[in-house]
Amino acid sequence: MIETETSTDPLWPSDTDWEALATRAVAAALAVSPYGSLADARFTVSVSVHFGTDDEVHALNRDYRGKDKPTNVLSFPMLEPDMLGALANTDDGEVLLGDIMLAFQTCASEAAEKGITVAAHATHLIAHGALHLVGYDHIEEADAVHMEELEVKALANLGLDNPY
């Protein structure tokens, strides 16, 4: 079972159920990855999603990545990718996959540039972040292409257009 715990800064619009959005986005991303079976696991797979501010994400980006600027989303995996395969042997309890942090001002600005809603863009960013939690990255071009393909597929499964 996938459990998504959320916290939301007051800057995020109150007309969206951010917790439900996060849950759908995480589940959709995991479903298109080799870890789709986590949704049916006998244990709880927990992902924390914080809908934060540019200031919060900027500080984390500076402190943990050495990049002194805000960014749209950060992911903090709690498991090494090689440990993910061993999850199949877990019978019960809870496994924390990691944390995903979104920056409202950057997210809202990017959504406006793309002509989409903040909710649609946040869904994409959470799916992107969830893929990072299970070991995907976009450092090398081939990895970036593969990760984007998974994101497009996850978003299509949610009825959202290709963000690229």
TrEMBL record:
It comes from the Bacteria. Coiled coil: none annotated. Keywords: Cytoplasm, Endonuclease, Hydrolase, Metal-binding, Nuclease, Ribosome biogenesis, rRNA processing, Zinc. Its cofactor is Zn(2+). Binds 1 zinc ion. It is found in: Cytoplasm. Its EC number is 3.1.-.-. InterPro entries: MetalPrtase_cat_dom_sf_prd (IPR023091), YbeY (IPR002036), YbeY_CS (IPR020549). Zn(2+) binds at H128, H132, H138. Gene3D superfamilies: Metalloproteases ('zincins'), catalytic domain. Single strand-specific metallo-endoribonuclease involved in late-stage 70S ribosome quality control and in maturation of the 3' terminus of the 16S rRNA. Belongs to the endoribonuclease YbeY family. NCBIfam families: rRNA maturation RNase YbeY. This is Endoribonuclease YbeY. The lineage of its organism: Bacteria, Pseudomonadati, Pseudomonadota, Alphaproteobacteria, Sphingomonadales.
